[in-house]
C-alpha cells in the first residue's frame, strides 16, 4: 500500500516539474534589413609610382660617383661623372670650325657685291655672278651647320655628368669608378624609384567585376561620390594607417587567368611600403541598402551542404529554413534568400535538441550574456539529477528504486508520508 502511494506521489511530482519547466528558452534575433558595406579582400603587390633605370648617353670611363646608395635624390641631381676630356676637345674643334665658316661668309658676301656691280656693265658674265651668289649662300649654310655641330658637342659634354631623371629613392650602383660605359648600354648604372605615392596592383576575377557592375547598374548596390576606397593589410596582418583610392581597372582580361588588374594608389610618406611587397587589399565595392545579417553561430549546414537556420514561427514553434548566403561580414552571414524582415532566428538555446514544430520560449539574444537555454529544466536530453544539491545524501530511500525520470533528489521517505 505504501509502495503504491509512494509511486503515485513520484509520478505526480514528475508531472508537476515538467509543467513548471515549460518549453525550453531560446535566444533569438529579429531580422531587419539594414545598409551593409560590401568589401572584397584580394592579394596584391606594391609597385613604384615611377621607375627610372639610369643609363649613360655617352661613351667613356666613370671617374666619380656622386651619390650615396639608398638615399633620396631629386630630379637633376648629379649621380656619375664620365671623363670629359674627349668631349672638351670636340667642343673646341666645333668652335674653330664655326669661326672658319663665319670668316668665309665675309669673303663670299664681298665677292657677291663686286660681281653685282660688274655684271651691270657686262664686265663679267652672268654665270660668274650666279656662282658668287651660290658661294655666299653656301657660306651661310656652313655657319648654320657648324653651329649645330657645336651644340651637339656641348650636349655630349653636358651628358658626361649623369643626372637623376626623376626624384625618388636610389638603389645600389651597378658600375663603379673606372668602369667603361657606353651610350644606351643594356645594364643600367642604377635605378631610381618614386615611392610616395605608391601603387598596389590587385588581380580580380573578371566574372566578379561583371557581377559588381551589373549590381550597381540594377540599383542593388550604391557607391558614394569619388573614387572607391581601398584599405590595405600588410604582410604581418596589421592594417596600413592610410586609406587608398581606386585608380583604374585594366581594360584587358588576362586570357590565361581570367582576371583584370585593379590599381589603387596610396600615400606613403614614411616609406613603409616598398615595391614588390605582398599585401591584401580590402576593396569597398559599395553599399547594399537592404542587407540581412545573421550571426554565423545561428547558421548550420545540412547533409546536402545547404545553409540552414531555425526560426521561431507561429505559436512560438520551431521552423527550419534553407538560406542562401552570399559572404561573411565580420561575424555575420549576409543572407540573400530564405529570410524576410521580422523573422526571429534562433541563435542559442534548446540544448541542441531543437526539432521542427517544437514549442520554445523566445527571448532577445544578448551576445554578451552566457549561452541561454542550455540548462533549461525539462529540456529534451537534459541529464537527470542535475538539480540535486551536492550535500543531499544519496542513501535515503534506498529501500525503493526511483521511478524512471523521477528526480533522485526527492527522498522516498517524504513520498511515503504523503
Automatic annotation (TrEMBL):
The signal peptide annotation in the UniProt record is none
Say which domain of life the source belongs to: Bacteria
Residues forming coiled coils: none
Q: Which residues form the Multidrug resistance protein MdtA-like C-terminal permuted SH3 domain?
A: 290-350
Q: Where in the cell is it found?
A: Cell envelope
Stretch list, region Disordered: 1-26, 350-418
Occurrences of domain Multidrug resistance protein MdtA-like barrel-sandwich hybrid (ranges): 51-193
**Which intervals hold domain Multidrug resistance protein MdtA-like alpha-helical hairpin?**
91-159
The Multidrug resistance protein MdtA-like beta-barrel domain extends over 197-286
InterPro entries for this protein:
MdtA-like_b-barrel, MdtA-like_BSH, MdtA-like_C, MdtA-like_HH, RND_pump_MFP
Q: Where is the composition biased (Low complexity)?
A: 9-25, 366-418
Q: By its UniProt entry, which NCBIfam families does this protein fall under?
A: RND_mfp
User: Which protein family is named in the record?
Assistant: Belongs to the membrane fusion protein (MFP) (TC 8.A.1) family.
Name of the protein: Efflux RND transporter periplasmic adaptor subunit
Phylogenetic classification of the source organism = Bacteria, Pseudomonadati, Pseudomonadota, Alphaproteobacteria, Sphingomonadales
Amino acid at each position: 500500500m505504501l509502495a503504491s502511494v509512494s509511486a503515485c506521489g513520484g509520478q505526480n511530482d514528475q508531472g508537476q516539474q515538467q509543467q513548471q519547466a515549460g518549453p525550453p528558452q531560446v535566444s533569438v534575433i529579429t531580422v531587419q534589413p539594414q545598409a551593409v558595406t560590401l568589401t572584397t579582400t584580394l592579394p596584391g603587390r606594391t609597385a613604384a609610382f615611377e621607375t627610372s633605370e639610369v643609363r649613360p648617353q655617352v661613351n667613356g670611363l666613370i671617374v666619380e660617383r656622386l651619390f650615396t646608395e639608398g638615399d633620396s635624390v631629386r630630379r637633376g641631381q648629379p649621380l656619375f661623372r664620365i671623363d670629359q676630356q674627349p668631349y672638351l676637345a670636340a667642343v673646341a674643334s666645333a668652335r674653330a670650325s664655326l669661326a672658319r665658316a663665319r670668316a668665309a661668309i665675309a669673303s663670299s658676301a664681298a665677292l657677291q657685291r663686286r660681281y653685282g656691280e660688274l655684271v651691270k656693265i657686262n664686265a663679267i658674265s652672268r654665270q660668274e655672278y650666279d656662282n658668287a651668289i651660290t658661294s655666299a649662300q653656301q657660306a651661310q649654310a656652313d655657319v648654320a651647320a657648324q653651329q649645330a655641330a657645336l651644340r651637339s658637342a656641348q650636349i655630349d659634354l653636358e651628358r658626361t655628368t649623369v643626372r637623376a631623371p626623376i626624384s625618388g629613392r636610389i638603389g645600389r650602383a651597378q658600375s663603379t669608378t673606372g668602369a667603361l660605359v657606353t651610350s644606351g648600354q643594356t645594364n643600367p648604372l642604377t635605378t631610381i624609384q618614386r615611392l610616395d605615392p605608391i601603387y598596389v596592383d590587385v588581380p580580380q576575377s573578371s566574372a566578379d567585376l561583371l557581377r559588381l557592375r551589373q549590381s550597381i547598374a540594377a540599383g542593388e548596390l550604391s557607391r558614394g561620390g569619388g573614387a572607391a576606397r581601398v584599405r590595405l593589410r600588410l604582410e604581418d596582418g596589421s592594417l596600413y594607417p592610410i586609406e587608398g583610392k581606386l585608380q583604374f581597372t585594366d581594360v584587358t582580361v588576362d586570357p590565361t587567368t581570367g582576371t583584370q588588374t585593379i590599381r589603387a594608389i596610396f600615400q606613403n610618406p614614411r616609406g613603409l611600403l616598398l615595391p614588390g611587397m605582398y599585401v591584401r587589399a580590402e576593396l569597398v565595392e559599395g553599399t547594399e541598402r537592404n542587407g540581412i545579417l545573421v550571426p554565423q553561430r545561428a547558421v548550420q549546414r545540412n547533409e546536402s551542404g545547404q545553409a540552414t537556420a531555425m526560426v521561431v514561427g507561429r505559436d512560438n514553434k520551431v521552423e527550419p529554413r534553407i538560406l542562401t548566403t552570399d559572404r561573411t561580414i565580420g561575424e555575420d552571414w549576409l543572407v540573400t534568400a530564405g529570410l524576410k524582415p521580422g523573422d526571429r532566428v534562433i541563435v542559442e538555446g534548446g540544448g541542441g535538441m531543437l526539432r521542427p514544430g517544437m514549442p520554445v520560449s523566445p527571448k532577445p539574444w544578448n551576445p554578451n550574456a552566457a549561452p541561454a537555454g542550455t540548462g533549461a529544466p525539462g529540456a529534451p536530453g537534459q541529464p537527470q539529477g542535475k538539480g540535486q544539491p551536492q550535500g543531499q545524501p544519496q542513501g535515503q530511500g534506498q529501500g525503493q528504486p526511483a521511478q524512471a525520470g523521477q528526480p533522485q533528489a526527492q527522498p522516498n521517505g517524504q513520498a511515503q508520508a504523503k
